[in-house]
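Lecture notes, unit on protein representations.

Consider one protein chain, 225 amino acids long.
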Amino acid sequence: MKSCKNYRDLAADSLTGRMASVVVATLILTLLGILLGTYTNISNNPSINRLVPGVGYTLSNFAWMSIFGVISFLVLLPMHYSYETGFLSVVRDRSVKDLTTRMFSRFNTKDYGRAIEVPLLVNVYTMLWTLLFIIPGIVKSYSYAMALYISCDRPELSAEECVSESRRMMSGHKGKLFLLDLSYIGWGILCLLTCGILSLWVCPKMQAAHALFYEDLKACDGKTL
């Protein structure tokens, strides 16, 4: 496995000439998240209720949150899946530039269900561990960090098997990935100072670094389920 600096440098190099494409994809995903997240609170907005008479009476707050929560779930989850796994193609093939189209591709394929099932299972497991305490939740999030990549590379595996395989592959490597993420802390501070704008450049580099980490982990790993 390489050093954190090596992964950062390789990630930046892998995005050379394609930065605009991944920034646009990141921006679209971010804006959709903000838009759908805003809509989940529409019934709590008195201005909206005044502009659209009856909104507050026709549907309860819970109903609005449920409706837009489901929309967010069905739209954002597969897009996040396609966004993250799309970086595997980016680091493997320098001719790949259109990450935005890939984000929407899951809606037209039989993989749509898988793009919901695998990340949902990862999120549920992580949340359950987090309920016990924050630290176990963080540790488990790194155990499951490779599940989406495994799901992309090995479609024959079930969602549960992808999670189990990620847990096995990350045994002894969670600290390394944590340090890789921690090495971006300087950029994280700058993102806060720029009100998140800089994250449009930083997030793609971190995603590329994660994909490269998975590639090395897979190359070093000789076991299968």
